[in-house]
Amino acid sequence: MAKKSGKVFDDSVLVPTHVGVIMDGNGRWAKKRGLPRKFGHREGAKTFRAIARHAKALGISYITFYAFSTENWKRPKDEVDAIMDLFEKYLDEVRDFMDENIRVRFIGDRTMLKPVLQQKMKKVEEDSKDFDSMTLVLAINYGGRDEIAHAVKSIVTDAENGKLSCDDVTESLIQSRLYTEEIPDVDLIIRPSGEQRLSNFLIWQAAYAEYYFTNILWPDFSKKDLEKAVLTFSERNRRFGGI
Questions:
Q1: pLDDT, tens digit, 9 for 90 and up, residues 132-172
Q2: CB 191 within 8 A of CB 24
Q3: Would you please indicate which residues are annotated as catalytic (active-site) residues?
Q4: Strands across the sheet with 210-213, in order?
Q5: Is 56 domain-assigned?
Q6: Is residue 114 part of a domain?
Q7: Residue 198 located in a structural domain
Q8: 21 in helix, strand or coil?
Q9: Nearest-5° angle of CA 200, CA 206, CA 209?
């Protein structure tokens, strides 16, 4: 990790290469205002766009947003449907990011998503694959344990076909079978809303991540809050198991 100078910080600030964001608190934001939960998700989507753009301004190279987990299917159907409709709407608008030279990636199991969503996701990834100002990653129907299970199945299949032996199984091999195979491990994970847990997000990639928790609900999370999280990260002493 190198010191970077974005449009906001000077060279003394160590900006994380990869930031993960758990977008939590949309439902509670709406409930506090006497609104249906779907209105919180709409506001949260607006915050997502603002924070993604500000991450680029700060010099962050990769930012991953936890948009919908493998466990979120347990929520009421009308809420899930509203989230999926919102996701499809913003997929149509994601080219705004592409106009800013931002690469867009999706991680997670796409097989449960509507075919039209899968097609749009694939098209966005293909059209933005050569952009390099920042990589924006959206975790949709994603779970860390599910991701590891998917990687293990891939390895077992190759072993059964004689392509791998037991000695070939290393951390690097497992890493190469994850959804994030070409993305560096996450340096900083931000979770708003007052909860202090990982919730099955990037559990392999977060082995040495720093965590930043705040009571602010996601729709109220601002650019200044992102800056505060990065500054807090910059002050941490990361030893990676050393002294």
A1: 999 999 999 999 999 999 999 999 999 999 999 999 999 99
A2: yes
A3: 24, 72
A4: 102-107, 134-142, 62-69, 18-22, 188-191, 210-213
A5: yes
A6: yes
A7: yes
A8: strand
A9: 130
